[in-house]
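Ticket #4471: structure export looks truncated?
Reporter: QA, pipeline team
Priority: medium

Steps to reproduce: submit the single chain below to the structure queue and open the exported record.
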Amino acid sequence: MADILSQSEIDALLSALSTGEMNAEELKDEEKKSKVRVYDFKRALRFSKDQIRSLTRIHENYARLLTSFFSAQLRTYVQISVASVDQLPYEEFIRSIPSATVLNIIEAPPLEGHLIIEVNPNIAYAMLDRLLGGSGESMNKIENLTEIETDLMKGLFEGSLPALKEAWTSVEHDINPFLVELETNPQFLQLVSPNETVIVISLSAMIGKSSGMINLCLPHVVLEPIIPKLSMHYWMNEKKNDATTDEYRAMKKSVEHSYVNVTAKLGQSQITVNELLHLSIGDVIKLDQHLEQPIVIEVGSLPKFTAQAGKREKRIAVQIIKKLTEEDDVDE
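Actual output as written to the record:
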């Protein structure tokens, strides 16, 4: 879409054209020239915008679940939100993260391959400091974690994996993630080829007074079996029938006690406005309904049954004769 010019820019453009600084014909020729966009084949875009939006929705839910989990575990202020979702080569992702950081290597059967959850040192050490009874201050000493500190971090991140499992249920895919290894040097991680396209979900995290990023790296080869489920069309169709049996029963029970208007339609007639104005007590309006014709029963405003008129215990009543279907013409 072309840029919208402000009034001052329009005035400047008209002034330049009137003074001869710009030539209208040259502008037309420039507009006719083919637009060329540089395409980098090393950064092949293998995910559509629709699939990127679905991944964003999934991980926005994941960020909310992580916020609740870490808040409870660390007993401090925690705020996590999705900052960006990008697709880029694996090599570029490895180069973009710190040389000493916390890398959680995850497997998520039935998906094949490995996922990576990279936690920035600022955030990782703030978490560790809280676990050890500190105030949550951050300092970068990730490259020389002790065995006890490593085990504490493993326990914390393993506890956060159910949040990832729950977030992915929104696309009707049941994964069972578990922590394979905790690594601190990204150079030792050659999980896929350098040019393999990966999705990087960057989460902005605030732990107490410390802030940093949590990055999820999802290789295309891992997500390939479920890529069709990431389209909006599939996601919306699946969502139409996602109510559980218990939810259906509860809904049915609630609806059963709702009140609806039932009307026995004895007939109808048309009169002119003049006739209406001159109606008086004792006048008779002729209906278009014959005595031998069944009465139409409307539920709400929809015709549902036919019936015949009568009495029951000195009260006017109708007896149901037939249930109407879509093929029935009630005007006959």
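Status: closed, not a bug. The export was complete when the record was re-opened. Leaving a note from the reviewer for reference: Residues 259-323 form a domain with the Surface presentation of antigens (SPOA) fold (CATH 2.30.330.10).
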